[in-house]
């Protein structure tokens, strides 16, 4: 008898919760407008995703495509953790709407090199740049874009290119040293 008394409220609670959930899901489904489908070229592959046009590219990469190397830092394009390449140029993906990508080629840290052997990645390892590592994908992507444009930058050009990328650990001297090292190997 005791188990029946305990079971009844549990079943009733489940039915009430399920009914509310069922009603909620049905209501959403009836009011649902289809999302546009975007075809994106990322790291040499084509991806299709149906998201709202104003969804930041960062969240499409991380939440919809599973490319989690690009990091969220600030959400206002001020720290550089979310930097990716759009047609070879460094861009902050946290504020770039996916609809703005159109047919551009997107490169994330996962696509910078097949085996992690890009000169900047090798220099990062050689100089032992990372501490916490959180900003490193954005730092590496910005540095790689700089060296693609200017394979032999001066220290001032490195500092100018990297000044918008924040490092919470203050490893700026090692970042600069790694870029100089990578420039000697390009």
Please outline the helices and strands.
Layout: H1 2-31, E1 37-42, E2 45-50, H2 57-64, E3 83-86, E4 89-92, E5 105-107, H3 119-127, H4 136-149, H5 155-162, H6 172-183
Parallel strand pairs: 1-5
Antiparallel strand pairs: 1-2, 3-4, 3-5
Helix pairs in contact: 3-6
- Global morphology: elongated
Order of helices and strands: HEEHEEEHHHH
- Strand proportion: 5-15%
Q: In which range does the helix fraction lie?
A: 40-55%
Task: Determine Rg (CA atoms, Å).
Answer: 23 Å
- Number of helical runs? 6
The secondary-structure class comes to alpha+beta
Q: What is the terminal separation in angstroms?
A: 80 Å
> Please, what is the average pLDDT?
88
How are strands sequenced across the largest beta sheet? 2-1-5-3-4
Task: Indicate the low-confidence ranges by residue numbers.
Answer: 1-30
Count of DSSP strands: 5
| Major sheet size, sense and barrel closure | 5 strands, mixed
């Amino acid at each position: 008898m005791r188990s029946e008394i305990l079971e009844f409220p549990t079943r009733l609670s489940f039915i009430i919760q399920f009914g509310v959930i069922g009603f909620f899901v049905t209501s959403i489904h009836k009011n649902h407008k289809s999302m546009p489908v975007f075809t994106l070229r990322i790291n040499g592959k084509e991806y299709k995703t149906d998201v709202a046009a104003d969804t930041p590219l960062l969240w499409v990469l991380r939440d919809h495509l599973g490319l989690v190397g690009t990091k969220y830092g600030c959400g206002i394009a001020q720290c550089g953790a979310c930097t990716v390449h759009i047609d070879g140029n460094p861009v902050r993906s946290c504020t770039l709407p996916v609809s703005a990508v159109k047919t551009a080629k997107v490169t994330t840290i996962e696509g910078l090199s097949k085996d992690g052997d890009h000169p900047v990645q090798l220099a990062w390892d050689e100089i032992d740049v990372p501490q916490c590592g959180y900003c490193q994908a954005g730092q590496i992507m910005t540095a790689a874009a700089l060296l693609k444009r200017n394979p032999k930058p001066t220290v001032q050009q490195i500092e100018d290119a990297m000044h918008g990328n924040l490092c919470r650990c203050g490893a700026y001297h090692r970042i600069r040293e790694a870029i100089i090292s990578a420039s000697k190997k390009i």
